Structure formats: C-alpha cells, structure tokens
Amino acid sequence: MVCQRCRRVVGEDLALLGLDVIEVRTGEAVVRHDTELPMKSIREVLRRSGFDLVEDKAGAMVELVKNTVISMVQSAGLRERKLKISEVIEQATGKDYRYVSTVFSQTAGITIEKYVIAQKVERIKELLIYDEMSLADIAFELDYSSVAYLSNQFKQETGMTPSAFRTQAVSARKDIDSIGV
C-alpha cells in the first residue's frame, strides 16, 4: 500500500468483514479484535482489491523496503535531500542495510539495487510521457550523475533510448476529444 487511496481501500475492505479498523499505514493494518482473526477471509477480500497479505517477517520487510523505495523515487528531488537509499532503508526498517539487502534478495529474487533501478526507469517513463521536463531535469530529479548515465541505464532496461520512448509514447496517445470518434 503506497498511496492514500490504497490505505482507504484496505480499511474499507477490512471494515466490510466486520473488523474494527484502528489504523491503516503503509504495509500494515491495525485492528481491534477479541477473537481469532478470519485470516482466510482477510486474504480473499484483499486479493479481490489487488493486495496480498504478508504474514511472515521476511515478506513484511520486503514490502516495507519496496514501499520505501517507491515513495522515495516518486517524491520530488532525490538529489536535493542528499539521502542514500541504503540510509533511508536502514531508517525505515531499523536494521542494518546488509542484512535487509540479503533478506530482500532471497525473498524477492531481485537485489534492492535492481529494484531501485526498475522503479527509477518506471518514473522516467512517466515523466517522459508527461513531456514537461527535459531529460537533464529528469536526470537531476532522480539523482543521476549525468544524462548519459540515465540514458544508458534506461536503454539497458527497456531496449530503447529515452528519446525513442518519448516519441513512441507521444505518437501512441490520442487527443482527448478524438477518443471514441
């Protein structure tokens, strides 16, 4: 659960099951209960809304790391905050980065570094489609040392240059008043 809408949906889903929802935070729901929780029903209702129930500690840590990375990449100005991803992850988990990295890799099947790159590439795609920022501005925003480095990484991940992606994405879009005509 990364956004406010996700937290709202999870809260509503749990309330529909008759649970007394105290709080829904990123990756965690707190409910008041006197009896055993209906885990099967919770799992089913969350899956219908596109969520998974994380019940083990390693899985919970992976979800926390993923949500932390997504939030960091989506928020403006990585470079301005001068934060290292490893430091942010240590802060979020309260654990040593090497330990978290090992658990993440074993559980998720991908390294944190690769996950960060994948999230950055998705953010680059989004910003390219919006076509409101230059490639230099995007590189600065996402804390790349240069446009060339961003372009190389983007091409490695997508098989095309950012310019080719922007052209393709723009040509694939329709004017809003021509949809359905």
Show the helix and strand layout.
Elements lengths: L3 H13 L3 E6 L2 E5 L6 H10 L8 H18 L3 H4 L3 H9 L3 H12 L3 H19 L4 H7 L5 H12 L3 H11 L9
Antiparallel strand pairs: 1-2
Helix pairs in contact: 3-5, 3-6, 3-7, 7-9, 7-10
Summarize it:
The chain is mainly alpha-helical.
Notes on the protein architecture:
- The chain has 181 residues and is mainly alpha-helical.
- Among the domains are: 1-53, no CATH class; 114-172, Homeodomain-like (Arc Repressor Mutant, subunit A).
- The protein is 64% helix and 6% strand.
- The chain has ten helices and two strands.
- The chain has a two-stranded antiparallel ribbon.
- A hairpin with a 2-residue loop joins strand 1 (20-25) and strand 2 (28-32).
- It is globular.
Structural class: mainly alpha
CATH class of the domain at 114-172: Mainly Alpha
Output the strand order for the largest sheet.
Answer: 1-2
Low-confidence stretches: none
The helix content is 55-70%
Could you state the CATH homologous superfamily of the domain at 114-172? Homeodomain-like
Average pLDDT score: 85
